[in-house]
Amino acid sequence: MNSDTLFGMALGLTSPWQVDSIDFSGTEGRQELHIRISFARGSRFADQSGEPCPVHDTVERRWQHLNFFEHTCYLHCRVPRIRTGSGQVETVAVPWARPGSGFTLLFEALAMALIEREMPVNRVAELMRVNPQRIWTVFNHWVCEGRQQDDPSGITRLGVDETSTRKGHNYITVGVDLDARRVAHATEGKGKETLSQIQKHLASHEVKPSQITDVSIDLSPAFIAGVGEAFPDAAITFDHFHVTQLLNKAMDKVRKLERKEHADLKGHKYTFLKNYDNLSEQQEQSLAEFITLYPTLGTAYRLKVLFNDLWTMPDRKTAEAFLQQWCDEVDSAGIPAFQTFANTVRAHWSGIIRFVESHISNGILEGINHKIQLAKRRARGFRNTHNLINMVYFLCGKLEFSYPRYST
Predict the structure, then answer these.
(1) What percent of the chain has pLDDT over 90?
(2) Exposed (0-12), middle (13-18) or buried (19+): which is 297, by Cβ within 10 Å?
(3) Nearest-angstrom CA–CA distance, 355 and 357
(4) Cross-strand bridge partners of residue 76
(5) 198 vs 4, which has greater pLDDT?
(6) I need a surface site. Which of 158, 166, 322, 377 has the fewest CB within 10 A?
């Protein structure tokens, strides 16, 4: 078996394709393998209708392939162009690369496999000895193709949240199918218009606004208005993690005010913010002492713990009675930070109570956001918002891809 036949087998070539020549050349320390592929004389190639057509002429093409040991490898071929039965001239699609790409399918599959295994695109480009923008072009092609094949038509419950491209920079908003636990659509921005963009994307897949029965969002006025316009029939559930976050901010304001007068409260922020079950034995002892010594702090902590019982209420009627009583106790306590929080609760009453019926939250989005944050840290931020959005789809969209699977 000669080297031409061996490389032809390694490349998976079948008739009429064959290895014509192999050249190993280059300067010292930078060797390259060049494999020239040809086709048998007199070969015919099928057009789009499947009709065998004769070769009209050829055009020279080159693709970067997987490295041969540590050496860069290129495939060369004079690709045939055929004249179809209708008289048009078409370039034949080669089996080892997709049209318009400068890489072989296996090269692209390895690049995508490395990205899938959480390697930053710039590092992939460095490892594979190409410009990073070329890897981004490959990456964006396959994500866009996966998106074209995606079908979000079964969505009924939607979660919406925002994240920044870099710290303090532009934002994107993600719409998540809460039942499928995946990103259905991501769009640039963080205002009311983002809900409209999500609705338009779903409409392009024949999802009517009335199909969305529930939406989970934070207390953003822009998101509230956006849901009202884009999905008027959907019931809003305010994410209870965001509500609890506001409650903890109120608790911390009370602690800070007490801290100004009592130095022994220094360093005990999380003693009051953590769930009691997560406190250390020493923190439990400190907490018991503080809520006894400082009545205002003790009252605030009791209200904080009591509020969280809301999420376990069995039905809406019970939840409303409980929450009304809690707000009355806040008014009686007269603690300004908690009165502000209670006013926020009253202003968003229906969406907060809705949780006991829908039992949905943005907890799934928090997991998705964690993946996005990890990707941002590995890449040291994304200057290109389009790249970040496609990375979100790649990591969190559960898309199906047609490139060859590459085992690393």
Answers:
(1) 66
(2) buried
(3) 5
(4) 36, 62
(5) 198
(6) 377
Protein fold of 157-238+361-396: Nucleotidyltransferase; domain 5 (3.30.420)
- Location of structure tokens 């979660």: 159
Q: Residue written as tokens 């209200």?
A: 303
Phi, psi of 189 (to 5 degrees): 105, 180
Q: How many Å apart are CA 332 and CA 156, to the nearest integer?
A: 42
Q: Locate 71 and state its tokens.
A: 């050496």
Three-class secondary structure of residue 279 per DSSP: coil
Question: How many other C-beta atoms are found inside a 10 Å radius of the C-beta of residue 232?
Answer: 10
Pairing of strands 30-39, 71-83: parallel
In this prediction, residue 248 carries a pLDDT of: 93
Q: Are 231 and 212 in contact (CB under 8 A)?
A: yes
pLDDT at 29: 66
Alpha-carbon distance of 44 to 52, in angstroms, equals 6
Hey, where are the domains in the chain? 3-96, 157-238+361-396, 242-357
Q: Could you tell me the pTM of the whole model?
A: 0.84
Share of the chain above pLDDT 70, in %: 95
Q: Coil, helix or strand for 268?
A: coil
- Start-to-end C-alpha separation, the chain: 29
SS (H, E, C) 131-159: CHHHHHHHHHHHHHHHHHHCCCCCCCEEE
Residue 238 sits at φ, ψ, to 5 deg, of: -80, 130
Q: For position 16, what pLDDT does the model report?
A: 92
pLDDT tens for each residue of 179-232: 999 999 999 998 899 999 999 999 999 999 999 999 999 999 999 999 999 999
Helices 316-333 and 295-307: angle between axes, nearest 10 degrees: 170
The string of pLDDT tens digits covering residues 159-171 is 999 987 766 667 8
Nearest to 158 by CA among 332, 364, 336: 364
Peptide bond into 221 cis (omega under 30): no
